[in-house]
Amino acid sequence: MKKVLQMSAVKYAIVGGINTLVCWVVILVLMWFGVIPEVANVLGYAVGFANSYILNKTFTFQSTNSHKQDLIRFGVAMGLAYLINLGVLIVCHRVFLVDKYLSQIIAAVFYTASGYIISKFWAFKQ
């Protein structure tokens, strides 16, 4: 089990699961307290981004780089991953006429894979 947990892809998946939970808890709690959904969404994703950055920097990739370097690169990495996600979504749903829900799932796989690759080989590179 220790060897499996040392693999950065497994760690990235664990962080992704934790991050999704944190993001949704923030969104749902804020909405429960009366915050409008759009504001709750922005705040939830902001907390999720911060959580993801901290966990990926310290746990997944164990980067010793400065926060200034890693945070900027991580932001760019997640922006690129999102653009890849959006491109895949558009091509799947609009060009190949794949069901919109299945297209979202396919796009999410590309987001996760590209986010991992960009983070591993560039954003948190030592």
TrEMBL record:
Indicate where this protein is primarily found.
Answer: membrane
Under InterPro entries, the record lists: GtrA_CellWall_Glycosyl, GtrA_DPMS_TM
The way it spans or sits in the membrane comes to: Multi-pass membrane protein
**Keywords for this entry?**
Membrane, Transmembrane, Transmembrane helix
Q: Which Pfam family is an annotated match for this chain, by its short name?
A: GtrA_DPMS_TM
Query: Per the record's keyword annotation, is Membrane included, yes or no?
Result: yes
Query: Where are the bilayer-spanning segments?
Result: 12-36, 42-59, 71-96, 102-123
Its family remark reads: Belongs to the GtrA family.
**What protein name is recorded for this chain?**
Putative GtrA family protein
Q: Which organism encodes this protein? A: Helicobacter canis
